[in-house]
Amino acid sequence: NAGVMQNPRHLVRRRGQEARLRCSPMKGHSHVYWYRQLPEEGLKFMVYLQKENIIDESGMPKERFSAEFPKEGPSILRIQQVVRGDSAAYFCASSLRQEPGNTIYFGEGSWLTVV
Amino acid sequence: GENVEQHPSTLSVQEGDSAVIKCTYSDSASNYFPWYKQELGKRPQLIIDIRSNVGEKKDQRIAVTLNKTAKHFSLHITETQPEDSAVYFCAASPYGYSTLTFGKGTMLLVSP
């Protein structure tokens, strides 16, 4: 049973370019979460999605960032016009259900470097 | 929203000693408290969790305690080993949601 799969693992973008990060949840999981980890900091919640729906995007910056989880295919976190401050590790996680205590499994992360 | 404070930020112990990491949370509605271990360049991995209906949980060398009145919970690692060296994160989740609020992490270094 494959875990949460993220790609690319490492991504380098120049300022002003777009970054697209993909996440395939664990088999059978329909709840996807994106977290961002800045260097030497904890993980910050960005967005919670179910298939075709954004449930909670309270942690997502209002501009340049968007996320989707289409009916078919992986979830995508999109960052437009990247800036140096976007350099971070972006972790996707998935769970079977949406309730407290339901284990959240993390992917290996996508490391974005903006030069 | 929820706010989780974690202390200490770094912790150095000798192999075989115990290590304790403490967290406090602000939202009394939180009722799920997991702990994650993250090695350099790796994903966070769940090591133990506790729900608000229990005060303590143990799994081999790892234990977690919860004091809901004081809104704090702690991770205890006994007989530490060099492979325990990593960054440990506590987190809290409010009732009805699986989204987690994380502490800033504790870098644990176990010296042989």
What does this structure look like?
The complex is a heterodimer of chains A (115) and B (112). Helix content of chain A is 0%, strand content 49%. In chain A, strands 2, 4, 5, 6, 9, 10 and 11 form a seven-stranded mixed sheet that branches. Chain A has strands at residues 5-7, 10-13, 19-24, 31-37, 43-50, 53-56, 65-68, 75-79, 88-95, 105-106, 110-114. Chain A has 115 residues and is mostly beta strands. Chain B has 112 residues and is mainly β. Helix content of chain B is 0%, strand content 58%. Chain B is built from no helices and eleven strands. Chain B has strands at 4-7, 10-14, 19-25, 30-38, 45-51, 56-59, 62-67, 72-77, 86-94, 101-102, 106-111. In chain B, the strands form two sheets. In chain B, strands 2, 4, 5, 9, 10 and 11 form a six-stranded mixed sheet that branches. Chain B has a five-stranded antiparallel sheet with strand order 1-3-8-7-6, with no helix packed on it. Chain B is globular and about 40 Å long. Chains A and B meet through strand 4, strand 5 and strand 10 of A and strand 4, strand 5, strand 9 and strand 10 of B.
Question: What's the layout of helices and strands?
Answer:
The complex is a heterodimer of chains A (115) and B (112).
Chain A (H helix, E strand, L loop, with lengths): L4 E3 L2 E4 L5 E6 L6 E7 L5 E8 L2 E4 L8 E4 L6 E5 L8 E8 L9 E2 L3 E5 L1
Parallel strand pairs in A: 2-11
Antiparallel strand pairs in A: 1-3, 3-8, 4-5, 4-9, 5-6, 7-8, 9-10, 9-11
Chain B lengths: L3 E4 L2 E5 L4 E7 L4 E9 L6 E7 L4 E4 L2 E6 L4 E6 L8 E9 L6 E2 L3 E6 L1
Parallel strand pairs in B: 2-11
Antiparallel strand pairs in B: 1-3, 3-8, 4-5, 4-9, 6-7, 7-8, 9-10, 9-11
